[in-house]
Automatic annotation (TrEMBL):
Binding site for 1-deoxy-D-xylulose 5-phosphate: 120, 151-152, 176, 199, 212, 217-218, 221
Residue stretches making up the 1-deoxy-D-xylulose 5-phosphate reductoisomerase N-terminal domain: 5-127
Residues where NADPH binds: 11-14, 36-37, 119, 121, 205
Pathway where it operates: Isoprenoid biosynthesis; isopentenyl diphosphate biosynthesis via DXP pathway; isopentenyl diphosphate from 1-deoxy-D-xylulose 5-phosphate: step 1/6
UniProt-recorded name of the protein: 1-deoxy-D-xylulose 5-phosphate reductoisomerase
Domain (1-deoxy-D-xylulose 5-phosphate reductoisomerase C-terminal) ranges: 146-229
Organism: Anaerocellum danielii
């Protein structure tokens, strides 16, 4: 089992649940990072006594250093890399949100760390580069460097233990359907931030909760699965499963289907990643199928939740398309949460950006960051032009 870890994004939903898990497993936390929530970071540092702390926003550096004069305190993007590559850590939990997670993941792998990856935007934007970096670092027949935390990918990873890649026919990603399952576009015109943040089964950070409502989260997860499991998007299906008990499935060439089930509780996939290749303790509540009674399934509504369809198209086209999709979506969610655009506008503007996107080759991290910046600028020009 991993002995010493750093948590990037320790103040977020995954970060806080990771701390709960590591306390129960007796894992030592040597590094923590937050972006703005310095109060919670200070509390966590008092509780866990790590060696190194990072606060993303430089304006909180002095406050943090005053509280911990004897610790290593770092800030900004470089500070985040110091935590991702901190020599005493064997494993890094990447619980950052958005493209901010990409470079720390790459640096951690290059520094020889294992990475428990919750930050799906890493693989959406940088899947091709991560694959290249892993091919240099991953030794044949040794345990995987990159471990999934996203619940669906953890489920698939668990279903694939002991299986040969040639026997996998397809992956079936389950989706809750979000708060607007069964609704049509006309019903969504006036929904507000509160409605959108009312996820039916999971309690998560705001950005991913909005993504679940548009179903682009599932589109991102298709791309994430392509890179995690080296599979084409044509061989990944999405099925709506409103109870979020089956976290995903794998169908094999003989027609057999394996699934992983549990109540929706992210502590289980976090624990699995931190304990792998062992199993952890019983942290999550045991499943009672008799009480649950019904597990149901539906086809996704690709017409209403058209970003899922667009995400599949971007997944197929590859190169700069997923980068642009992510950048446009990050901006759209930000504008929505700031009350500047409506919920349907998220989908409409992201679709417009992708419609006008011209493919560019992605060979380096720099290419990704440039496409990301260009797309965000394009998004701002488009939306500011229309709302002013
Ligand atoms: N929450 C969940 O249940 C699940 C989440 N995921 C994925 O895990 C990742 C984390 O999600 P979640 O925990 O919900 O997100 P949260 O928004 O709750 O937490 C994000 C964390 O990252 C920090 N952060 C935010 N912006 C930056 C930045 N620009 N630079 C550095 N640090 C930053 C935040 O710091 P601060 O608090 O100081 O702002 C916080 O610690 C996402 O990629 C999400 O898609 C996947 C499956 C389930
Ligand atoms: C918990 C988790 O892994 C999320 O990504 C979850 O899947 C979101 O729910 P949706 O299925 O509604 O997107
Ligand atoms: Mn998920």
């Amino acid at each position: 089992m991993t002995k010493k870890i750093c948590i990037l994004g320790s103040t977020g939903s995954i970060g806080v649940q990771t701390i709960d898990v590591v306390k129960k497993l007796g894992i030592k936390v040597v590094g923590l990072s937050a972006h703005k929530n310095v109060e919670l970071l200070i509390k966590q540092a008092r509780d866990l006594n790590p060696d190194i702390l990072c606060i993303g926003d430089e304006k909180y550096y002095t406050l943090l250093k005053e509280n911990f004069p004897d610790k290593i305190v770092v800030t900004g993007e470089e500070g985040l890399i110091s935590i991702a590559t901190y020599p005493a850590a064997d494993l890094i939990v990447n619980a950052l949100v958005g493209i901010s997670g990409l470079v720390p993941t790459i640096e951690a792998i290059l520094a020889g760390k294992k990475v428990a990856l919750a930050n799906k935007e890493t693989l959406v934007t940088g899947g091709k580069i991560i694959k290249m970096v892993l091919s240099q670092k991953q030794e044949k027949d040794s345990l995987p460097i990159l471990l999934p935390v996203d619940s669906e990918h953890s489920a698939i990873f668990q279903c694939l233990v002991g299986e040969e890649k040639k026997n996998v026919k397809k992956i079936i990603l389950t989706a809750s359907g979000g708060p607007f399952r069964g609704k049509k576009l006309k019903d969504l015109q006036n929904v507000n931030v509160e409605d959108v943040l009312m996820h039916p089964t999971w309690n998560m950070g705001k950005k991913i909760t909005v993504d679940s409502a548009t179903l682009i989260n599932k589109g991102f997860e298709v791309i994430e699965a392509m890179f995690f499991f080296d599979i084409r998007c044509e061989d990944i299906d999405v099925v709506i499963h409103p109870q979020s008990i089956i976290h995903s499935m794998v169908e094999f060439v003989d027609g057999s289907v394996k699934a992983q089930l549990s109540y929706p509780d992210m502590r289980l996939p976090i624990e699995y990643a931190l304990s792998f290749p062992e199993r952890g303790k019983q942290i999550a509540v045991p499943l009672d199928l008799v009480k649950i009674k019904n597990l149901t399934f539906e086809e996704p509504d690709f017409d209403t939740f058209f970003l899922l369809k667009i995400a599949y198209e971007c997944a197929k086209k590859g190169e700069s398309y997923p980068v642009a999709l992510n950048a446009a979506n990050e901006e759209a969610v930000k504008y929505f949460l700031e009350g500047k655009i409506g919920f349907v506008d998220i989908m409409k503007y992201v679709a417009k950006i992708i419609e006008s996107h011209r493919v560019q080759k992605v060979e380096t991290i720099r290419d990704i960051l440039e496409i990301d910046a260009e797309t965000r600028q394009k998004f701002k020009n488009l939306v500011e032009g229309e709302i002013s």
